[in-house]
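Supplementary Methods S3. Complex input for the 2AL-bound model.
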Amino acid sequence: MRILVVNPNTTAEMTAKIELSARAVAGPGTHVEAVTSTMGPASIESHYDEALSVPGILAAVRAHPADGTVIACFGDPGLEAARELADGPVVGIAEAAMHAAALLGRGFSVVTTLDRTRGRAWDLAGRYVAAGVCRGVHACDIPVLELDRDPTVTDRVVAVARAALAADSSDVIVLGCAGMADLPAVVSKRVGVPVVDGVAAATLLVQSLVTLGLSTSKHGEFAPPPPKRYTGLIG
Ligand code: 2AL
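Predicted complex, serialized as structure tokens:
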């Protein structure tokens, strides 16, 4: 099967990291095609960035037909719209990570990038998991594109994760950015609890759904959008 993994930001170095995480878990019969969005922000760290990332995500979904699709940004931008466009199942990395974390303990804490992205993570937790399962969302104050450049990233994520486990009485950590996809093993080893990377979780969730022969219901809300005239770049 072919799984499309869309990096909703336009930074190719980050797509390479995302691709490694997806390929590391994909089964032998699964081809992972990781693509970088061709329009929008270099990183997604605000509601504005998130809104401007959506046309690029939808263009990638349209240009790269696949058996299933992963949206690899922790705000899950454009998830519902992509479900209307794609034939196969579409899973967001926050959605996958939070569902997986809920299977692994009584409550999880999210460790994310900037403080201003915490609200979106809380909103998504309210949508995806029962009340009380997401115990806290904590920022390590590292901008997305610094995750690759700052040599102190692992130590800072470990420190924030330890403090989050204590403050929230949680027992699982969710990494709140696709740019942290290289960190789950090392952070888990140092902190001593399961650490979930949404890129890997979403890839395997999509692979499972495709293997089960399951896809988005086209019965109602997620039917293809009604044909009409669109004006401008998105047309
Ligand atoms: C993200 C992410 O996963 N990709 C990106 O550009 N921004 N998430 C975040 N919390 O900063």
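Residues 146 and 153 are 8 Å apart (CA to CA). The mean pLDDT is 97.
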